[in-house]
């Protein structure tokens, strides 16, 4: 749909006066050009203003459409590719580097505020090289992380946490070679293994996919327990780290719900080989989730069964313990990431194209049902 036609359709749907049309057109064009047009899951040829017009058209004329439009203008949060990349760039200098500096300061006996001197020591350079970076998901952007930190060797960054025997052995061999160059002495035993493992992830809203405890199965589940289990082994990833390894899980973006959930469960997770910590680069504040009092009109809109497809509540969503109407695990988020909308956001925002409700930023699910040709 051409831009002019989409704008005309939107003005008709909202029943704007000429003055309102002029004001809102400028606002929406700013939204679209600055961020929203870059959403990667729009169908071919579609852009934000067209999607907005079609999304608003499904609601009743009058108050429902105004409520939905106000939500977009005042409550929607959209992380652009540039913003997420900036968070990736901040990860090393704000989270990882201070830890390395502190440890190198203690080992080398230099005052902690002598930053430049510390980073030039053998202790710091050794710690720096003995840190392994692994991606926890497709959104970890390990490629961008590597380019943003050219001092980090390509041999200490890997896009996934499921590391093969061959790759693990290759990383350790390269580590030994570089440590020999740094210190002038070939390391042996634990000195030739990784001391720190940094796990990178783009976003966590509930934390349940990262870690949870299944009472029925009496078993830990999620990505974090799986990685810890691999580290406990004496092969593959486990064979490349020391006894006493420090595992640091870093999310570029996380909600308060996820921070609380992960922080509560991590201390209970058995790990005899080392320690596990959780850090966040950008924390979504407590005011981000939609509130039933503050956002009462929009909650009324979401409660209307015409704007929810019951098929969205599948077996995968059941893990969250609540309906996806208000987001997976009752996330109630008004959040969109440039590459996809998380299902922790409210359903009416991300309804998939294969469902009966139209989403403003349609989500593509990992568990998408097979469609007939």
Describe this protein with a few key phrases.
five-stranded parallel beta sheet; 373 residues; 9 strands; two-stranded parallel sheet; alpha/beta; 14% strand; 13 helices; 40% helix
Molecular structure report:
The chain has 373 residues and is of the alpha/beta class. Helix content is 40%, strand content 14%. The chain has 13 helices and 9 strands. It has helices at 3-14, 18-34, 48-57, 63-74, 81-108, 115-119, 122-129, 142-148, 165-183, 223-232, 256-265, 296-303, 347-350; strands at 77-79, 131-135, 157-158, 194-204, 212-214, 219-221, 241-254, 274-283, 335-337. The strands form 3 sheets. A 5-stranded parallel β-sheet has the order 3-2-4-7-8. Strand 7 (241-254), helix 11 (256-265) and strand 8 form a beta-alpha-beta unit. The longest helix is centred in the first third of the chain and has 28 residues, at 81-108.
